[in-house]
Amino acid sequence: MAISSRVFTGIVMILVISGELIVPGKGTCQGDIEGLMRECAVYVQRPGPKVNPSAGCCSVVKRSDVGCACGRITASVQKMIDMDKVVHVTAFCGKPLSHGTKCGSYVVP
Question: Does the keyword Signal apply (predicted)?
Fold first, then answer.
């Protein structure tokens, strides 16, 4: 059963507000985390096909420190997003994650 992007965004927002998205002691990242969730959630959620992101998603990716945000992904968030899709979205948008970047427990190949 697929989760709608609105439900997914709502869940992630709850995790952000409750502090579950941010690893304690790591501070915050530059950029529009709310915009990333709003514009890009549908492209990285589980399940579903890997598709190219919208111009709106890419716009937010380009002005955000995705590598920083990636390092703050918790296990509970990682259960909802497909890290291969995150890598695809960032690369498609012209801000590829470097090989070896750690996103939660996932390491970019």
Answer: yes
